[in-house]
Design a protein that fits this description.
Length: about 260
Amino acid sequence: MTGVHRKTRPGAPAGFFAVEAAGLRWLDVPGGPRVARVLDVGATHLDVERIRPSTATPADAHMFGRALAVLHDAGAPAFGALPPGAGASGFFGPLDDPLVMVAGAWDDWPTFYAEARLRPVVEQGLERGVLTRDDAAAVEAVCDRLGTLAGPSVGEPPARLHGDLWSGNVLWCPDGVLIDPAAHGGHRETDLAMLALFGAPHLEEILAGYTEAHPLTPGWQGRVRLHQLYPLAAHAVLFGGGYVGQTRRLLEELGV
């Protein structure tokens, strides 16, 4: 890994790059995954070390899973908490059109998921004309049942999450290196569900390594789609198209 990778955007939302830099630093914990090193940050740019990716092997994926469990176990002060120095709100989505990600401090995951993720993304979708009042009602019905849907995992403490852990934000060289986080305190199953949403390489080995380090709460397989609702809805808001239909089908799967 050599050189500098610069992300830049004139007119970026206030604090956008500072939030990302704070997230990268917060995710760098002993025994956790490798994290792209922050070299410089300003109002309109972020410089990180350039990662030259290779192809992941099953062994690499297994080791990454173990390291990810260590990162999650580093914890967070509360559900919704942002990294130190991140400011008042986070961001989720692409550089040219990020969604504001609500931050705060919630005592339990269902309340956090409803108040800081699902209801805000519906409002964003309504504002952009992508989602409808029927969609909002369906999401509200899910919010009303989150305590039940979360099952025995509802009592888990807040984990230290990458927050946007789709496969493109893990670069293999050969070990997994984290980039482009939306870091916050959340439920550890959320990062794993995001890896599954867009098909991480050797996902079975990632999960095997993870569960060796920290077994998942029984029934986690049945909660994957629940944790995918926010990122899928956010993609609907950002990109429209087929993501809107996928979001509606997921709401139907959740029994709404």
